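Subject: sequence -> structure tokens, single chain

Hey, anyone have a minute? Need the predicted structure for the following. Not urgent.
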Amino acid sequence: MKDLDLLPEARRQHVAARLHSNLIAWFTTVRDDGQPTTIPVWFLAREDDVLLFTRPGTRKLRNLSLNPRAVLGLDVTDIGRDNIRIEGVVSIAPDELPADRNPAYLAKYTERIGAMFDEAAAFSAAFSVPLVLTPSRVRTE
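Reply:
Had a minute. Here:
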């Protein structure tokens, strides 16, 4: 992601490692009444964007249809320090492979998918809407 290039090398490597190893992130969208809403999500950080999957008909999709800006915050594991947040614009991405046919997504989440859905096809059927977050800013305070 482009903002990572602005970080010192050691910090850039640390942030990149967290983006690839953290399993949960907090995804914030804004309701039509202006109220932010945050939920935990599974995500896949890629070279230039972040891939998520959601169920059809969710509040998240309604919020994004009105305001496509969102924030993805990594699960903080260090007493509130080491926050990593990605701000950007989210779009529905119908050309993305479904979760059960995306090798990188499966590599990251196979164990959790198996524990919660028995098989990848069941997860993919439930979380059938692919979303792509295109970053505009990466914050690492």
